[in-house]
Design brief:
It is a single chain. The protein folds into 2 domains: about 220 residues, Glycogen Phosphorylase B (Rossmann fold), CATH 3.40.50.2000; about 180 residues, Glycogen Phosphorylase B (Rossmann fold), CATH 3.40.50.2000. By secondary structure, the chain is α/β, with parallel strands linked by helices. It is globular, with a radius of gyration of 22 Å. It starts with a strand and ends in a 12-residue tail after the last helix.
Length: about 425
Amino acid sequence: MKLKIAIVVHGRFHAFDLARALLRRGNDVTLFTNYPKWAVERFDFPRERVRSFWGHGVLTRAARGLHNRNIFRYREEWFHTMFGRWASAEIEKEHWDVVHLWSGVSEEILQVLESRPTLKLIMRGSAHIDVQARLLEEEEHRTGMPQDRPSQWIIARERREYELSDAIVTLSSFARDTFIAEGIDPTRLLLLPLGANLQTFRPSAEVIGARCQRILSGEPLQVLYVGALSFQKGLYDLAAALKSIHEDPSQGRFSFRFVGPVVPEATKLLGEIKHLAEFIPKRPQRELPDWYAQADLFIFSTIQDGYAAVLAQANASGLPILTTTNCGGPNLIQDGETGWILPIRSPESFTERLKWCDAHREELASMVRRIYNDCRPRDWTDVAADFENICLSEYTKIFERTLTEYPINMGLRVNTG
């Protein structure tokens, strides 16, 4: 059974990877985004299946740039509503079996589709927005640094989107549990862990051999972080761990490398630790496998993430991962076997685990080989297949009576080949 699917996203996130995999599995997929068509095509998704509000993308990036320079206040109520109105007008033009909508820009679409026989899924890439807001407020008090916290406007909007949708797609057990804690019916919560492009991120045996040789040689362990450098991603704790190791060289031999954009809030802190690590600006995704190949460990001390796609990439790359409970790590990592799950806001836990890695080189090299040889990384075909199963299960559950009486008019097409 193949589906006619609309994926609506204000940016890229993991939507392009999912759309590509769903299309390759024979589904009729259209991608609605504010990326220009030529940019989407670079991610191997056909431009004829893209509907682009590229002007919105240009305006959004310009407005955010001015906001970061304190020239203009970014107004999400303008830009999110603008994109939602455009997408709702486009979606309304035809029937869809499934609309997969990114939270924050979808209220107008959900309102238009409210009485239509379409499965309406909200994709929430982080924790429940109330939990995210509380965690960031706590981080603001803890660090003394203003955080880019969700506004009351976006919190109220997302709450309405949750209610208007048929189901909410979460990417990790952590994220799902935050919705349950906020009173959302667990039967409306779906779990869809992410994957990685194995053709891109799966290393050769030679890369794994070189990593093990490097670990066993006694050279400094190459510790890699990939992602935005922000307090939400745990930069405050990583900085504390770096300072601790630098102040006491007996704690281990390490070389740290950070790859990713710097958010304005982190500029001052990075100035304090710039001599303790190598900082690389954001790199195109096609270059990331080379950075993973040069690493021995992957570190990600996030305060909250719905999943964190870089974890799937690092795992596919054969890297032992040190991360927290508040992301997709617990769904991806066998604690102590393929990496470690540590508490949030606990730089000492990361420092102690790094020290252990340095002092147990044989065990660390064995872990690298075990990850590479025994663990099958999840790829985007797996994600797409799970998404199809979710859709068919939810569609049948919600519209069972209508499907029984009017199977053809519902628009679902059965593949009889």
